[in-house]
Structures are given as C-alpha cells and as structure tokens.
Design brief:
It is built from 8 helices and 17 strands. The chain has about 425 residues and is α+β, with helices and mostly antiparallel strands. Strands 4-5-6-9-10-13-16-17 form an 8-stranded antiparallel barrel. The radius of gyration is 37 Å and the shape is flat.
C-alpha cells in the first residue's frame, strides 16, 4: 500500500547507512535490516530552488517493515553499537599492548612525547566509549561522526600503525644536498674541442684538484649552463682553494676559487638520462710557464651522468643481454650445421644465418641503449649514502661569447669521488 509522507526522511537514511559507516576499512559482519516488499512512497521536502521555481517535488521509494519494524531497527542499531564498542575496545587494548602497557595501566617512567600523546589519546577514547553508553541524547549521526574523528586521530599516530612505513622516494633534485666530493680536473686537448688549434698541441695537461659540497642553499642567479633557476643551488668549494699539481719545472700551486652553482638537469643526457651540471669560478688564468695549455679565467663548467639508485631497474638490460647471448649461441651452432649440411641445406642455413646476424645487430644496439639508461656500477661513483651514482668521468668546458651566440669549448675531462666530511 502506498502512503505519502510529507516529512524529512534524513534520520531514516542515516539509519540505513549505519553498517557501512562503522566499517572503518575493517572486515565486519554485515547485517541487513528486515524489509518488507511493500514500498512506501515518501515525499522529500523541496530545496529552496524548487519552491522558488514552483517545480514538482521529487519523490523517492523506500522499503520499510511492518508495524513492528521500528523496534527491529532499534534492536539492530543497539546490536551494531555494542559490536562496534567491543571492536574499538579490543583495538584500544591492542594499541596499549603495542606501546608496552596494559589498557588500564598508568604511564610509568619517562617516555617520549609521542608515546605520552598516544596513551592520552587511547585513554580518552576508552573514556568516551563509556560516555557513549550513558549519553542517550546524542543523535546517531553525531555519534558516528565523533567516533570516526576519534578513530582517525588514533590511526594517524605512527606508534599505532599496523602498516610498515614506506620510505618516500626523494626527488632527484634533493639527493645530492649536503654531499661532498673530490674533483680532479684534467685539462688538455680533446677530440672535438673548439679551442684554438695551437692550444694543447704538445699534449701537456693540467691537473687541478679541489673538494666541493653540493649544498641545499638556493642559487638566486641565473646561469644559462644550468638551464634554469628552479632547483639550482650553491656549490661550495672547500677552503676556497684549488691545487695545481706539480710538474717537472714547478711545484704545487694554490689557486683562489669562488663558489659556484649546481643543478640536476632532467632528461638532457644520452637516451633521456639525467645530468649533474655544476660550475666554479676563478679570477685568474691557470697555466704553467712556457706551456701551451691554459684554463681561461672565469667560470669552469662540468657535467656528468646522474643516476638515482632508488629507482628500480626496468629489466630491459638483462633481457637484451640474455637475448643476445641466445642469438650468439644459436649462430655458433648454426656454423657447425652449415659445415655438415648439403648444398640445399647450406642455402637454407645461410639464409637463417643472415637473419640471425640482423637480429643480433638490433639486439646489440638495444643492449647498448639499455646500458646507457642503466649503467654498470663499475663506471659510477656513489654518494656516501648510496642513493646517487655519478659517472666517474665527466666533461669540462668554458663559455665563449661570440656576439649574441654562446659557445662552450671543451677544456678536458674531470674525475669525481665521494668525500666523507
């Protein structure tokens, strides 16, 4: 039988959703309210917009029980509250046990502030549960909302988390913050340099050593070599000095040097890898007497490969290596088969050999590319915490302005090694 009710049904809706609200993400027994098959047509009070626009009132169909269904629903609610109370009490006991105390024991000794706070939260929760039973004037919606807030407050406490905390991956730009490195510049003529033809033609090389810290202090100066001011930081030269290694005619010489900057350049390396770029600055030209190699005054720019060791391997390098090994083994076996085959067999197996060689070349190329993205540890130098691998050899260059154009001329290479300071 259909009955039209012109009243709010919000309390009924809250009651219907009570079992789901209490789940708290845990496995609980699901109860179903007894419902008859007789629908009752309920008129929901209109929103102000319906009243203003004189639109028809929306309707909704709900199922309700017979005349005694209200009592059944109340019994269900009390049962659910009792069950939830038991579960939360058990949870409080478990939390107290994890903190090394009984649920009703007082705090003994001098604990950490976090532990004291957690115990206070647990005690407050138990007390509030007792108050729930005696306070009958609190509405069901208010009761559920308050208990949910209390449960969230406890679950956010790290002392009571059942899930092991997972270390968040740091951003690439912060992995080198505060790390110290020994740098050895090897200045001399390299293939492809745009330095003057007479520069370094004798084969002479300059060895310059210094120590540097990649600080976490923001660099507020734009440097085109770094690419952007975003995440650019100050590179601190320890002691403000570099040492020029001795030669047959000269001893060790100290050279004053200024701090520079550094930045992780994302995706600008070979095969889209990351680069570490940094620079230092000197006011004097570095050279030896009667030598044809020099390092011009100004900024000295360096770059090398940067690899985050927290990033899991894609496995491509291993797959291509295995495939290449299998192809090589097959080619060796095919050589023996060709030697013992007849005329027609040789033709067929030679054709297979050609296909194998093409596939081997493709696999070798893929393997080389994968080796660039995931280099072998033998070509890397690692930070003291092992989170970063830098290619142990990098490039050194200087900036040359030609009108509106900027050129970077190769000065040589550098070698890098972690320094624990």
């Amino acid at each position: 039988m259909f009955v039209c009710i012109n009243s709010y049904i919000l309390p009924i809706v809250c009651i219907c959703f009570l079992p789901q609200v209490w789940s708290f993400g845990s496995t609980t027994s699901k109860r179903h309210f007894t419902a008859s098959t007789s629908p009752i047509k309920v008129t929901i009070p209109p929103h102000n917009s319906f009243i203003r626009q004189n639109q028809p009132l929306p309707l909704v169909l709900l199922y309700a029980g017979k005349d005694d269904s209200v009592e059944n629903i109340r019994d269900e609610i009390e049962a659910l509250k009792s069950e939830a109370l038991q579960k939360l009490t058990a949870l409080d006991e478990k939390m107290s046990e994890m903190n090394g105390q009984r649920p009703d024991s007082s705090l003994e000794g001098e604990g950490s502030s976090v532990s004291t706070t957690a115990t206070a939260i647990s005690t407050t929760t138990t007390t509030s549960l007792m108050e729930e039973e005696t306070n009958k004037e609190e509405s069901e919606s208010e009761y559920m909302e308050r208990r949910l807030v209390e449960r969230i407050a406890i679950s956010n406490n790290p002392d009571y988390s059942d899930i092991n905390s997972v270390r968040k991956n740091k951003r690439d730009e912060t992995l080198l913050d505060g790390t110290n490195w020994r740098i050895s510049l090897d200045i001399g003529r390299e293939i492809g340099t745009w330095m003057p033809k007479e520069w370094g033609i004798s084969g002479e090389r300059l060895k310059i050593d210094f120590e540097i810290e990649f600080s976490d202090e923001q660099l507020y100066e734009r440097e085109e070599f770094l690419g952007s001011m975003g995440d650019a930081k100050i590179a601190v030269v320890k002691g403000g000095k570099m040492k020029l290694s001795p030669s047959l005619t000269e001893g060790v010489r100290e050279i004053s040097v200024k701090n520079g900057g550094w930045r992780v350049s994302k995706g600008n390396g070979p095969m889209g890898t990351n680069l570490l770029r940094f620079y230092i600055e000197t006011d004097e030209k570095i050279s030896r007497k009667a030598g044809d190699v020099y390092c011009p005054a100004g900024r000295i720019y360096c770059s090398c490969g940067f690899f985050n060791r927290n990033t899991p391997s894609s496995g491509q390098k291993e797959r291509y290596k295995k495939k290449l090994d299998d192809l090589i083994a097959r080619a060796e076996a095919l050589d023996d088969e060709i030697a013992s085959a007849g005329f027609l067999g040789k033709l067929q197996k030679n054709a297979e050999m050609i296909r194998l060689k093409v596939e081997m070349q493709e696999s070798a190329q893929r393997f080389r590319e994968a080796s660039i993205v995931e280099p072998d540890s033998s070509i890397l130098k690692f930070s003291s915490n092992g989170e970063v691998g830098l290619t142990k050899e990098g490039g050194v260059c200087c900036k040359v302005n030609k009108g509106v154009a900027i050129e970077y001329h190769i000065l040589g290479r550098f070698y890098i090694q972690s320094s624990k300071m």
